[in-house]
Amino acid sequence: MSTFDPATLEALIAEATVDAYGEDEQLTGLFTMIEENLAVPFTTTVLGVEVNVIGVDLTEDGRVVVRCARGAVRQNIGVLDLPLPDPAPEGSHWIEAYRYWAR
């Protein structure tokens, strides 16, 4: 559940997609805002295991993912499925905007 109201999320989406034509460019705009503004690394818990989120990426099939690390193990997790810690890292409002847009 987002901590931001729909009007705020829609304003963020409008900011990220101002020059975008079509869904692919909108996705790229939102990804860019996440990539540029999300404060990494941060720690969160995935399936009961603490992991470090060390980066963000856009996959070839059009998914925004975060790169997670635990020791030497690395795994990408879709931003739509990522549990955010409390307090959430700086810039996480762009993740919330992306989730709202993706619905």
UniProtKB/TrEMBL annotation:
A Pfam family hit: Calci_bind_CcbP
Xref: InterPro entries: Uncharacterised_Ca-bd_CcbP (IPR020994)
The name this protein goes by in its record: Calcium-binding protein
Organism annotation: Streptomyces halobius
